[in-house]
Amino acid sequence: MAPNASNPQQIPASETPSSSAGELSRTKSVATRLTEAELAEIEAAAFQAGKKVAEWLRDTALSAVRTPEEMPTDVVLLAEIIGIRNLMVNLFAQASNGPLTKEDIEKMRLYADSIKDQKAIENLAQRRLKSTSK
Fold first, then answer.
1. What does the angle CA 17 – CA 23 – CA 26 come to, to the nearest 5 degrees?
2. 3-state secondary structure 14-37
3. Residues 17-44: pLDDT tens digits?
4. What is the pTM of this model?
């Protein structure tokens, strides 16, 4: 069965190609087109990782398909900070009007939790857009 988005094919670790001697040799290639800016980003990331571009691209692509889809740690941490920030701002704003009830605090917490992930993703996307346009 061919892999697809709804039913990805998992390759057992014992069958995955490796760069170690005596393992399966790599004979297939994938090509793509990039802008100058995209190529520069990839070259910088590969250099920072101490790898050749092809090796970095292969490792990054294989890592993406072999690891379960989850939110990256930087997004999770930023989301929590945004949630806390939102909660604190709302708590101080409401507290200036008088005492808060447990229900008020719970409503504010639920609201902060409901927006934090999306706000973190939007924040990081805006930062990436600004850094690539420079």
1. 50
2. HHCCCCCCCCCCCCCCCCCCCCHH
3. 444 545 678 899 999 999 999 999 999 9
4. 0.46
